[in-house]
Design goal:
The structure holds two protein chains of two kinds. Chain A is α/β, with parallel strands linked by helices. Chain A is about 35% helix and about 20% strand. Chain A is built from six helices and seven strands. Chain A has a seven-stranded mixed beta sheet with strand order 2-3-1-4-5-6-7, covered by helices on one side. Chain A starts with a helix and ends with a helix. By secondary structure, chain B is mainly alpha-helical. In chain B, helix 11 (about 210-230) packs antiparallel against helix 12 (about 235-265) and helix 12 packs antiparallel against helix 13. Chain B is elongated. Chain B starts with a helix and ends in a 10-residue tail after the last helix. The chains are: A alpha/beta, B mainly alpha.
Chain lengths: ~180, ~300
């Protein structure tokens, strides 16, 4: 009826060129932000702003020391470093820099270093340093404020008497929002 | 002037050829000649000859005549308009193939015709996916138009084919487009909601779609992260706690249950296990974080995932 040769060539050409496209499915990127560290860092800033230290501690930088949690340190440094705390500027120090050679207003001791709590409490006794922690039972070990996790939200409990003993006056907001 | 001369000569030679073919009374002579010209890649001449064949009642009644016409236009599309989403040659090629399939002797050429249709259908699909990734104005409508064209022709090209996989992939692609737009402007929740809508469509189509559950979870988690990121030195303590409550609720009640579904379906998929780590970390679930970190280490040790493939 018609040229078989032509028809044959057509079908061969079709077989060679056919290709159905299929794109590989890509998963969405999940952000790596440590959101708990974001909250803890903000709390530390709130503690700095809303508590009151004795007059002699209101000179020079307002020092926040972070021990055992680089994420909290990074966020503190990025978001809150050099921000004013009254007439002082906030300064963030990390790990080995945290010692009694300079005045540390707020010391955050992460649970990864909880075995060091006794040493830090002893070293900073009478130094008017607010000690903040994040594990159960830390207040009994000498911490002034301890973070708690409640349904994924970070809240805090406080040892008001311990703070007063360290000459730090808790602010109204801090007392108001602390878990009793 | 020169072009007109060439064209006149060309038409004259075509007419001479038509007359000689007609004189030889060979069946489908014009169609066969068009096919030969097409093989020689003389595509304009092939199309002209094929159109002449279609104008001939006896040839136009044969399915092969329409098949060749569609084939020539397909070749023109491939050579000159490949990637052009509005190609008229492609549309017309499909119409000719489709017409060919409805003629009385269609079965003689059905396999070749279907193969050609499948090829062109796949180009509509590719174009639909590409358009779905574009942020240009009107790209989404164009993507839907191309996809619907694909959906119209593909079952004819491959009878009985399941279209669900294609619909899922296209829907994912549209979802991915909205997700990207939302990432560019996180203050536009309409993009986020449209992305969610697409992935929800997918899990309705297929309740075992791990990637869709994963992406739904990631969208909710991202929404929470964008809230956390706004917390700074100007945020009042009460506001911070309000933001935190809302964000944690989103993670706890939306993101985590969806990631759990993905994990139940694919417990050894790196991205999903990593997702579990991130979500549990956001909820301060220390033990869970440790457990899934160990799972990642195990999967890497057993060669089930590569280092960094889970991120």
């Amino acid at each position: 009826m018609f040229s078989k040769g032509v028809k044959y060539c057509f079908s061969q050409a079709l077989l060679l060129m056919f290709l159905l496209h299929s794109e590989r499915w890509q998963a969405q990127t999940i952000p790596d932000d440590n959101t708990v560290a974001i909250i803890r860092a903000n709390y530390l800033y709130q503690f700095a702003n809303n508590n009151d230290w004795p007059a002699e501690q209101k000179k020079g930088p307002f020092v926040v020391g972070i021990v055992g949690n680089s994420d909290v340190f990074d966020i503190m440094a990025a978001k809150y470093s050099s921000k004013p705390i009254g007439s002082q500027l906030l300064s963030v120090i990390m790990g080995n820099e945290v010692n009694t050679a300079q005045h540390v207003h707020v010391l955050f001791l992460d649970r990864s270093r909880k075995m060091d709590i006794t040493r830090y409490v002893k070293e900073f006794k009478g130094k008017k340093t607010l000690i903040v922690t994040n594990w159960e039972g830390a207040l009994a070990q000498g911490a002034h404020i301890n973070f708690l996790s409640i349904d994924g939200s970070i809240r805090f409990e406080m040892n008001k008497a311990g703070m007063l003993e360290s000459s730090i006056t808790p602010g109204v907001k801090i007392v108001q929002w602390a878990i009793q | 002037m020169g072009n007109t001369m060439k064209r006149s000569k060309y038409i004259a030679s075509c007419l001479a050829l038509v007359i000689s073919i007609a004189g030889s009374s060979q069946p489908l002579a014009l169609t066969n000649e068009a096919a030969k010209l097409c093989q020689q890649m003389k595509l304009d001449a092939a199309l002209e000859m094929s159109n002449m064949a279609l104008a001939d009642k006896s040839e136009a009644a044969d399915a092969y005549c329409w098949y060749v016409n569609g084939y020539v236009m397909k070749e023109i599309y491939k050579e000159r308009e490949y990637g052009l989403r509005t190609s008229v040659f492609r549309d017309n090629a499909m119409k000719s193939f489709s017409y060919s399939m409805n003629l009385k002797n269609a079965e003689q050429h059905a396999s070749m015709t279907r193969l050609a249709m499948k090829y062109l259908a796949s180009t509509y699909y590719n174009d639909a996916l590409q358009a779905s990734q574009s942020n240009a104005v009107g790209a989404e409508q164009e993507a839907y138009r191309l996809f619907e064209t694909f959906m119209k022709w593909m079952p004819m090209a491959e009878p009985g084919v399941s279209m669900m996989g294609y619909r899922k992939e296209f829907t994912k692609s549209i979802g991915q487009r909205y997700f990207s737009l939302w990432q560019l402007d996180t203050d536009k929740p309409e993009y986020r909601d449209k992305a969610l809508e697409q992935y929800e469509k997918i899990v309705k189509l297929d309740s075992t779609e791990v990637d869709a559950y994963y992406n739904l979870s990631v969208i909710h988690y991202n929404q929470a992260v964008f809230m956390y990121r706004k917390i700074n030195h100007e945020t009042d303590m009460f506001d911070m706690m309000t933001i935190q409550e809302a964000a944690a609720k989103l993670i706890r009640e939306k993101a985590l249950p969806l990631m759990d579904k993905a994990y139940a379906l694919a417990p050894e998929k790196g991205e999903v296990v990593h997702g579990k780590i991130i979500l549990h970390r956001a909820l301060d679930h220390e033990k869970d974080v440790e457990y899934f970190k160990q799972e990642i280490a195990r999967l890497m040790r057993e060669g089930k995932i590569k280092a960094d493939s889970h991120k």
